[in-house]
Amino acid sequence: MDAGDAMERGERAPLLPESHGPKVEGNSLDVPLLKGKKRAGSKAPAVVLGFECLESTAFSGISTNLVVYLETVLHGSNLASASKVTTWFGTSYLTPIFGAIIADTFLGNYNTIIVSLAVYLLGMMFVTFSAFLPTAAALGGSSVLGAQTVAFVGLYLVAVGSGGVRSSLLPFGAEQFDDGNATDRERKGSFFSWFYLCVDFGPIVSGLLIVWIQDNVSWGLGFGIATACIALAFGAFVLATPMYKRRVPTGTPLKRLSQVVVAACRKVALKVPADPGMLYEVSDKVDPQPKIAHTGEFSFLDKAAIVTASDFEEVTAEAGSSWKLCTVTQVEELKILLRLLPIWATSVIMSSAYAQMNTTFIQQGSVMNMSILSVPVPAASMGSFEVLCVLTWVLLYSKVIAPALSGLSSDGDGEPSQLQRMGAGRLLMALAMAASALVEMRRLGSAARGEEITIAWQLPQYFLLAGAEVFCYIAQLEFFYAEAPDAMKSTCTSLALLTIALGSYLSSLIYAVVAAFTATADSPGWICDDLNRGHLDYFFWAMAAMCTLNFVVYSGFAKNYKLKTVLS
Question: Fewest Cβ atoms closer than 10 Å to its Cβ: which of 368, 374, 481, 493?
Answer without folding.
Answer: 374
